[in-house]
Design a protein that fits this description.
The chain is an alpha/beta fold and about 220 residues long. The protein contains seven helices and six strands. It is about 35% helix and about 15% strand. It has a six-stranded mixed sheet with strand order 3-2-4-1-5-6, sandwiched between helices. The N and C termini lie far apart (about 65 Å).
Length: about 220
């Protein structure tokens, strides 16, 4: 009788994904929902990007992938300047399009769209302001990240420069979490990042909102 040999364990490639949120904008400070509106960094936001870039450059990334909006492109450029890497920009990494919510403050959203806001916070699928569902954001962003990771060598590191909401939904999708639980992933402070590490059973969250001492989260997923 032939003894059946068990399948070998899947090969580990130990790649990393660093998902890095852009620096501060004026609308972050005003607690205005930016969404896909193209807002530039403040001088403080540019300083944040430069500081964070010095830390991330020490990881010796193999590739940089970024949203094409100004705030992310400027953030990514600081890391590119230190590493000599070219930045690949992709509109699929933009922040959630939120229609009528965009440009409104947190208080204005709660006042005008209270029921919609409450349903979103409960984890229900909501087209905020008539815009995208969170699952639709994940469906456009996560595949772009996955394709870029596949080009990395074993042990390689990909830095993805994106937006708070897009990063959260992408992490949720890559970890295989149910969409209603994605809110459990707290928001990212400006120019902080999360790290996913590759294991034999898929991606694991290794760090979240890293890069600084705890700071308030000012952004679209408060």
């Amino acid at each position: 009788m032939t003894q059946q040999v068990p399948d070998p364990a899947p090969a580990r490639r130990d790649r990393r994904i660093v998902l890095w949120r852009h620096g501060q904008t004026a609308w972050n400070l005003e607690r205005r929902f930016q969404g896909s509106t193209d807002i530039e960094l403040t001088p403080a936001g540019l300083d944040q990007a430069r500081r964070a870039a010095r830390l991330l450059a020490a990881l010796r990334p193999d590739a940089i992938l970024s949203s094409d909006l100004k705030r992310t492109a400027a953030t990514a450029a600081e890391l590119a300047a230190l590493t000599g890497l070219e930045v690949t920009h992709d509109e699929a990494l933009r922040e959630t399009y939120a229609g009528d919510w965009q440009g409104l403050t947190h208080e204005e959203i709660v006042e005008r769209f209270g029921d919609q806001y409450a349903a979103w916070k409960r984890g229900e699928p909501v087209r905020r302001g008539g815009g995208e569902l969170e699952t639709e954001v994940a469906e456009r962003a996560a595949p772009v990240v996955e394709r870029s990771v596949e080009k990395l060598p074993p042990g390689g590191t990909l830095v993805v420069v994106s937006h708070g909401g897009t990063i959260r939904t992408t992490i949720g999708r890559l970890l295989g979490l149910e969409p209603r639980t994605w809110e459990a992933l707290g928001g990212l402070s400006n120019c902080c990042w999360s790290v996913l590490g590759e294991g034999v059973r898929g991606w694991r969250l290794m760090e979240h909102n890293a890069g600084t001492l705890p700071q308030p989260v000012l952004g679209d997923d408060d």
